[in-house]
């Protein structure tokens, strides 16, 4: 949120409304498109697919549950457990109050804009 409000302040906008917030959020997401796209090459397929699945859900309580794994075609629970550990270690995912979510809210929004089929691999 601090980054968002800093960007708004940098535009010299004095009166903030939902339209301004949405517009500046989109500018930030667009400016980071190449960075976010590059994660596809920097992570294993299992890590990337799990990162995207968590983003599509916004937050996940049980990433290794059979329902979540099947919904996103993530393989086995052991694969998910290994991938979640790596994503946490790389500070791409955090766990707060028993919920897993992406650290970068803009990356999470970017993934949701990219979409993904809820019935299979993301």
List keywords for this structure.
122 residues; mainly alpha; Arc Repressor Mutant, subunit A; 2 domains; 7 helices; elongated
Provide structural commentary:
- With 122 residues, the protein is mainly alpha-helical.
- The chain has two domains: 2-31, no CATH class; 45-114, Arc Repressor Mutant, subunit A (Orthogonal Bundle).
- 62% of the residues lie in helices and 7% in strands.
- The protein has helices spanning 2-10, 18-31, 33-42, 45-57, 66-72, 77-89, 105-114, and strands spanning 93-96, 99-102.
- A two-stranded antiparallel sheet has the order 1-2.
- A hairpin with a 2-residue loop joins strand 1 and strand 2 (99-102).
- The relative contact order is 0.15.
Structural class given helices, strands, pairing? Answer: mainly alpha
Task: Kindly report the average pLDDT value.
Answer: 87
Q: Which outline best applies?
A: elongated
Query: Under CATH, the topology of the largest domain is which?
Result: Arc Repressor Mutant, subunit A
N-to-C SSE series?
Answer: HHHHHHEEH
Radius of gyration: 16 Å
Number of domains: 2
Strand content: 5-15%
Total strands: 2
The largest beta-sheet arranges its strands as: 1-2
CATH class of the largest domain: Mainly Alpha
Name given to the CATH homologous superfamily of the largest domain: Winged helix-like DNA-binding domain superfamily/Winged helix DNA-binding domain
Low-confidence stretches: none
* Biggest beta sheet summary: 2 strands, antiparallel
- Helix tally equals 7
Q: Report how far the terminal alpha carbons are from each other.
A: 27 Å
Helical residue percent? 55-70%
Which CATH architecture of the largest domain? Orthogonal Bundle
């Amino acid at each position: 949120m601090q980054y968002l409000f800093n960007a708004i302040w940098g535009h010299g906008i004095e009166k903030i409304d939902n339209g301004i917030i949405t517009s500046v959020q989109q500018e930030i997401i667009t400016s980071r498109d190449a960075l976010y796209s590059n994660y596809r090459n920097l992570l294993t397929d299992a890590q990337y697919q799990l990162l995207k699945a968590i983003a599509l859900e916004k937050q996940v309580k049980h990433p290794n549950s059979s329902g979540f794994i099947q919904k996103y075609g993530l393989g086995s629970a052991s694969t998910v457990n290994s991938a979640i550990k790596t994503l946490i270690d790389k500070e791409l995912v955090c766990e707060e109050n028993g919920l897993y979510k992406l650290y970068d809210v803009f990356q999470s929004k970017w993934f949701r804009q990219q979409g993904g089929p809820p019935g299979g691999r993301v």
